[in-house]
Fold this sequence. Notes:
Layout: E1 4-8, H1 11-28, H2 33-52, E2 55-60, E3 64-70, E4 76-80, E5 84-91, E6 99-103, E7 107-111, E8 116-122, E9 125-130, H3 134-149
Parallel strand pairs: 7-9
Antiparallel strand pairs: 1-2, 2-3, 3-4, 5-8, 6-7, 8-9
Helix pairs in contact: 1-2
Amino acid sequence: MRYEHTQKGKLHLILYFVALYLFISSVFIRHDPFGAMVLFCGALLILVFGFSLQTFTVRDEGDFLRIFSGPLPLFRKKIQYSEIEDVKINKSNILDGWGLHYGIGRGWIINIWGFDCIALKIGKKKFRIGTDDKEALFDFLKRKLEKDST
């Protein structure tokens, strides 16, 4: 029983557009070298984030679930199956946004596009994994947790 799924997002396209806008803006304010440098560095930073959010992979690696973005894996997480207490199909909303972040009262969320997710309870922590393959991931995790508990 193995699981691996890679979701392709669209968030990186938005970030590339913002980076392009900042690059162009930095050229037009050459009379202010500090401002131009700030815009240029901001564009580079956003470009790196965009490059890291093209894909989102969830992979079974035996005793744990590995989650990472790509092709530049800035965002990654490893979750031990033995720590997962509950798993549910869930939905995020526009307030949750995209990326890897913590929401007060909502827990951790990592996703790159869309609102379907799998909610995990790990001790007192909540963790939501965004996916475009929610039924298959949910079924895999339920089977994995049942197998590990026996």
